[in-house]
Amino acid sequence: MILTKQFRCIHSASCVCTKGHLTEEVLFLVFNHLNWNPKLIVALSCVCKWFDDLAKRVLWKEFCRTRAPKMMLDLQSSGSHSVDGNWRALGKLLYILINIGRTRFSRTSGKSFLLPQCRTDVLYVSDPCEHLDQGDEGDVGFFRGIFKSFAMSKVRKMLISRSAPMHPTEVCPYCKARLWNMLAAKMIPSSASCRLGAYEDCIEYYVCLNGHVLGICTLLPLSDTDEASEE
Length: 231
Known about the structure:
Layout: H1 24-33, H2 38-45, H3 49-67, H4 69-75, H5 87-99, E1 105-106, H6 107-111, E2 123-126, E3 129-131, E4 139-147, H7 154-161, E5 166-171, E6 178-181, H8 191-196, E7 198-208, E8 212-219, H9 222-230
Antiparallel strand pairs: 1-2, 2-4, 3-4, 4-8, 5-6, 6-7, 7-8
Helix pairs in contact: 1-3, 2-3, 3-4, 3-5
Protein name: EID1-like F-box protein 2
InterPro entries: EID1-like, F-box-like_dom_sf
Organism: Sesamum radiatum (Black benniseed)
C-alpha cells in the first residue's frame, strides 16, 4: 500500500511531534501488527492533528476493512474510495458493536427495514443488541446500520419529498450530521418488527444525512417471538 508521506505536523510548526516522529509507513506497519486496535487508534488521534489526520485517512479505514471485509468491499464497489461520513465515523459504528459482542451486519436484513419501493437500495443492519428487563419498557433492543451510496438512494429522495422532520436536538453519534426520523416519515415497514422480533408499534429509528442508521425497539418475549415466526 502506497501512503503519502507527511513529515510535519499540520497542527503547528512548533508542535513537539515534529521532532523525529515516525513516518506514515512505519505507523502503518505498527498498527497492522496490533491488528488495528481501535483503542490505540483513538489514543494516537489525541496527540495532534497530524496523527488525527493519519487515523482518519488510513488507520480507521484498515480497521473497518479487517472487521467487516465483505461489507467494506460492497460499500466501495460503486467506485468510491471512501464511505459516506468518513472512515472514522464508520469505525465508531463498528467499534461500538464489537464492544457489545455484536459484529454481524446483514444486507438481507436491511431489506426488511425498507419500504417495497425502496428495496433496490442497499442497507446493512446489525442484529439488535439486547438490554433485558428494562422495567416498564420491557426488553429493549438497539440496532445500527449504514446505507450504501445514501446520497443517491431512494430512501433519501423519499425523505426529502415527504418533507420528513429532522430531530430537533440530537445528531448522529458517529458523524455529527442531523437525523431524519423514519417513524415520523412513516417509512418503517411491518417487516422490520418481524426481523427484529419486536412489537410492531415499538420500533423507532433514525437515518443521518450520511446514511448511518441507529434505532431502538421493544423486543417480544422469546415465546411470543417463536409463535410469530411460526405464523
